From TrEMBL:
Residues 18-263 form the Nodulin-like domain. Keywords: Membrane, Transmembrane, Transmembrane helix. InterPro entries: MFS_trans_sf (IPR036259), NFD4_C (IPR056555), Nodulin-like (IPR010658). The chain crosses the membrane at residues 82-104, 149-173, 179-198, 219-237, 243-262, 353-371, 377-399, 420-439, 445-466, 478-503, 556-575. It comes from the Eukaryota. Pfam families: NFD4_C, Nodulin-like. The keyword Transmembrane helix applies. It is found in: Membrane. This is Nodulin-like domain-containing protein. It is a multi-pass membrane protein. Its main location: membrane. It comes from Taxus chinensis (Chinese yew).
Amino acid sequence: MGGNFQSSTCEGGVISNKWLGFVSAIWVQAIAGNNYTFANYSVALKAILGLNQLQLNNLSVAKDVGKAFGLVAGFASDSLPAWLILLIGSLEGLLGYGAQWLVVSQRIRPLPYWQMCVFLCMGGNSTTWMNTAVLVTCMRNFPKNRGPVVGILKGYIGLSTAIFTDVCSALFASNPSSFLLMLTLVPGIVCVAAMVFMQPVPPAPDERAETEESNNFSVLNILAIVSAVYLLAFDMSGEHGVVLSRVFAGFLLLLLAAPLVVPAKLSLQERFSGDAGSNPRTSFWKSSEKQVKEPLLNNTEEDAVGVGDSLTVVTEPPPPPPPPLAESMRQIARKPRIGEDHTILEAMQKFDFWLLFVAFLCGVGTGMAVINNMGQIGLAMGYVDVSVFVSLISIWGFFGRIGAGSISEHFLRKAGVPRPVWMAASQVVMIAGYLTMAAGMQGSLYIGSIVVGICYGVRLSVSVPTASELFGLKYYGLIYNFLILNLPIGSFLFSGLLAGILYDMLAAKGQKVDAIAPLTSTGWSYANSNGLLAGRHNNLYVESGKTCVGAHCYRLVFLVMAGVCLLGFGLDLLLTFRMKKLYLNLCKSRKAKESQHIREKL
């Protein structure tokens, strides 16, 4: 980070600025879930470009492939400041979604298919820069509360889909063109505001400060839950008039601004106490510099726990004398143990890394297929407007993320329960969700959307801190983005290949029908590239072509994905068994430190 900038902000109150940075991270995450909104405008793209289902699904794969280039953001996070990473992400999103808006709003003629793939890829990649900037910075600022940090941030990124969808529905009647314009402009505006506040700040210096942090996270959890319930109530309350919809949008903005109460309270406390924190300002600044350059997991603190008998709980010993040259060379050559800082190459040499990677693929890859195909799944089951299902996945995904982050942290602290236990549980519930949607009963799509949303959220929320506890925080930005490669891989396997091919096969056997979805764009009509008429008719967006209708269209897809989740369940159980000692030792280490702190007070 820029030294002058940080120094000036630190002088205004380190603790309040630290939390102001976290609130700005919440805002970034609240607008960074645009990758999950493809279903809101996918039918419009399909008709305008004249695509079959496989081609449309490959567009969604191109969007998710953008996350594969998140490795670049991971490398950059080791050397670039957070504000620059946010700037890169916002500019890339402006180009990627801006081009899609020009096509859907018909301000330009449809672009060639390969160019659309490039722009969707850019839009998908833009969020990796935003996510990397806020996650890496906040987990380094709050290393003792990783579960709540990830739960809240990932929760808001889950809510972002519902925020965009409901605001667009309230203000623009679910117009795909207006929706894409929001995705083009809003993230850039929020990121520019967050650039002012995102900076590395030292972690809590003592047990009292950690307790205060936990209390503040509880407040933010409550505010996030209120926002989610508010969005859910809007979605489930049916049609709304223009006035009520605008009132809803205004109050939603107030709820998103509500987390500012935490830094505001801390700022008032600092002003009246005349103290900017537990340590002098100069020590905070020096600690901030040290924080960026040194690993946050080391063998003398609670987070550095090995597996097996090699672990001992230690306090800060006096620095040993410099070792001989031979001993120094042996230390350099020694491979890090689980719980210590790993480079990405060192992590990839561990069997546990690939267990986590493949199990993650089974959960989020299949969930991504449902999210990307929700527009066509809804049409196949007889729903013209699928925005309610998109919002349900988003909102219940929030509950999964925020609940899993806090619950896993609680049981880890109290009993040393390994986090992968919760990942295994989510796989079982997701299997039930896929079987429900495969049955095709009335209301099954509502139930399936809720179940997939919860389990997808749990998976994302728990996997992130698990990776940091196994492989450290020093190179976490790159390790996180490598895990996120599962999103484009899963999208390609389960959405681009499995769902796309099977759907087109069934559609080819069916009758020629009209696929419709809402659109309130300007009137137009022209033949698309497949020679089929696509246009606006009676406020509906009409594409004439072969479309599969019925629960059977995606039944085999859901059954295959249920089998994949069963495989993921087995891998999660194996990882839980292998990491049991790690988490028990981590729990013992934390309790020993707490006991030592109590004795010091006495």
